What we know:
The protein has helices at residues 8-16, 22-31, 45-53, 84-107, 167-175, 206-229, 305-329, and strands spanning 57-69, 81-82, 112-124, 138-149, 161-162, 178-196, 234-248, 257-272. By secondary structure, the protein is of the alpha+beta class. The longest helix is centred in the last third of the chain and has 25 residues, at 305-329.
Amino acid sequence: MAHRPIDMAASLHRVQQGGIPLRAIERLQEEAGPHKKLFTSDLGVSEFLLARDAGCHPIAQLMGSSIYHVGQIPDYKGRTGELEIISNAHRESRRRAIARLWEEARVVGADVVVGAQLRERMITMGARGKGGDDGGEVLEFTVVGTAMRAPFITHPPGSPIVTDLSGQDLWALIQDGWEPCGLFFDFCKYHGWHVTSGQGGVGEVASANNVVEAARKLVIDRITRQATEAGAEFVVGSEFSIDVREVPCGYGGCKLDDLDVNVSWFGTGIRKIPERKQERQHVPPFMLPMMPVGRRKDTSLGGEDDDARAIERAAEEAEENALELDEFNEPDDA
C-alpha cells in the first residue's frame, strides 16, 4: 500500500511538543482499521487467554520513548535537599515516553494498555560520571505495552488507561469487581551533606536514616497526590527502589561523607468498577499450568543490557576518579 507524502516539518513539531510522528499515526490507524486481520503484542499465552476470558480484546503492541539530556546543575555540595534538576529530568523523560504510548493507544481506540514495561538506560554519562556534579547524562526511557478494548473500564472517551498490570493481574481484578485507573510514577534524587563519619563504629546513623526517609517521603507524597487525583482506592503492583551511595564531600582532609539517594516508584491505581457486581469465577483448568507465579519479568528491547551495564560501570569509575582528583587538588586547610 502506497503512503501519501508526510509533512516532515509538521511531524517534527509534533515530536517536539511531546507527541508522536505523523507516519506513526498513519500506521496505527491502519492497524486498527476495519480490514485488520492480525495484531502484535507482548502478551504471553496465559495473559492472552485470560485477558480474552475477562472480555478484553487485544488490538496492537505500542511503544513510547524519550531520549533526554539532564540539564547542568550548580554545585550542590554543602547542603541537604532534593536535586530538582536531576529529579525533574527523570520524571519528564518518563512522562514523555508514557504520554507517547498513551497517544498511540488513543489512536487505535484502546480502552486500556496492559503489561506496560518500563525501561531506562543511560546513553551518555556526564563529564563527571553518573550522578556527578554536572548532571550531564543523556537518558533513554522506553515503555512498551499492549492496547486492548475493554468497554466496561471506566474512562473519559478518547482517554485510555495505561497500566503495568499483566493479563493475569487484569483478569483477577475484574473477577472481583475492580478496574485500573492509571499508572503512577515518581523519581527523587536527594543529597545529604555530612551525614556519615567515614569511620567505623557501632550504632545507627540517624542522620543518614533521616536523608533516606526524607527522599522516600517526597516520592510517597507525590504518588499519593497522583492516586487521589485519579480517584484510585489502592495502588497495586508497585515497583519501589532505593539506591543509596556514600560519597566523599569533596573537601580535602574532611572526615565526614555525603549521601546520594535515588528513589523510584511505579504502580497502578485501582478502584471498584461502578455499578458492577462481583463476578468470581474459577480459573479455567487448562490455563492453570501456564500461569506464572509473581510479577512478570522485565523484557529486553534488543539486547542492550550488556552495553548499558558497561556504561554504568564506566560512569561509576569516572565519578570516583573525579572525586579523588578533587580531593587531591583541594588545599589542606579547606
